Amino acid sequence: MKKMTIYQMAKKAGVSIATISRAMNPNTRHKVSPPTRAKIDQLIEKHGYTPNVAAQNLSRASSRAIGVLVPQQEGLFTNDFYARILSGVSDALIGSGYQFKLVMLPVDGKNWEQHNFKFGEGVDGLVVAHWPYFFSNKSFVKKIKIPVAIINDWDKGLTCHRVSCDNENGGSLVAEYLLNRGHKNIAVLSGPKWSTDSHSRLQGFKDVLKKKRVKFDAAQVISANYKEDEATQKVKLFLTSKKKTSAIFCLNDAMAIGAIRGIQELGLSCPKQVSVIGFDDAVSAQWHSPKLTTVHHPIYEMAKGATQILLSDLNRKNKVKKRHYVEQVFPVRLVERQSVAKL
User: Fold this and answer.
1) pLDDT of 155-208, one tens digit each?
2) Containing domain of residue 276, as a range?
3) CB burial class (10 A; 0-12, 13-18, 19+) of residue 2?
């Protein structure tokens, strides 16, 4: 049976097209009388009808969609970090009347400042994970012209909503923990140079060591760019040098797992000979051998919070000339497992 159009349905039910639309919209359904709703529901059940969402969006100059911008890379959907971001955004949209839209752009040096995300991607707001991947300067948020919430690697010069975890305190927690376990010869596997999260974690770590008068120099910091395989190779090179190391602080869990592999490939034991601690508390940290001691990074809660901030911005009835930008910092906690020995 051929499905009815909205015009045919309105004629059959003896109501206006606007009434049909109200009855099918969960946010306005209550405005239609129960008998009329029942009549429309019966017609839909009998003849079938699917609203044209694209046409509705064009008519009201709004897509009613929130986009989440992530880098176009292999294994994105098997990556626990991005899976938690996507889950947080989509869960926050339940019952909001807004749709979820994944925006995957290549990280190839292209400048996306001039890209029209509202019309090009069909979104009313944008959650951005790792803004330095896509944009070259802080002015990009003024050119996008839709509300933006950045999670991870933001800095205070950005005029947009900003959500992060307390990265500096996370580094401090690691330093306190390792020192309390008797470790003083500690190496650090850091992230990319552009990562403000990496810098903050390292700074918190170094501040505690300085306060405790524990010697630490730049040679103890090894850049592995948050990558597991790179961490394996860098750790093997470092440990075969003259540097004496009892523990390695990895600024994400992928590097921590890579570091443990490197230690084991050298015929050494983790944690008996070299301890490893990570940052993220990825799912893999719980089943890895040894189970990884790490800092819990509330990325799901951050993504959910960023989306809720955007929804609040978009749903604000009394629009003000100057937008108020929200800055939200989530606490972190250390999760003790098996990868750090007590000396």
Assistant:
1) 777 888 999 999 999 999 999 999 999 999 999 999 999 899 999 999 999 999
2) 167-297
3) exposed
Cα angle vertex 24, ends 18, 29, to 5°? 85
Confirm whether 21 is domain-assigned: yes
33 and 84 co-located in one domain: no
**58 domain residue, yes or no:** no
- Both tokens of 29, joined, read 């359904």
Question: Which pLDDT tens digit goes with each residue over 46-85?
Answer: 776 665 544 454 444 567 899 999 988 888 888 889 999 9
Token digits of residue 46? 């009998």
Residue 25 included in any domain: yes
132, 146: one domain: yes
Contact 277, 248 (CB under 8 A): yes
Scanning the structure block, which residue is given the tokens 């019966």? 42
| Residue 71 backbone dihedrals phi, psi, to 5 degrees | -70, 145
What are 191's two structure tokens? 């992230």
Q: Please give the single-letter amino acid code of residue 195.
A: S
Asked if 329 and 161 touch (Cβ cutoff 8 Å), the reply is: no
Q: Considering just the CA atoms, what is the radius of gyration of the chain in Å? A: 25
Number of domains present in the structure of the chain: 3
- In-domain check, residue 140: yes
Kindly report the pTM of this predicted structure: 0.80
d(CA 71, CA 163): 18
Q: Which CATH number fits the domain that encloses residue 204?
A: 3.40.50.2300
Looking up tokens 């990280």 gives: 107
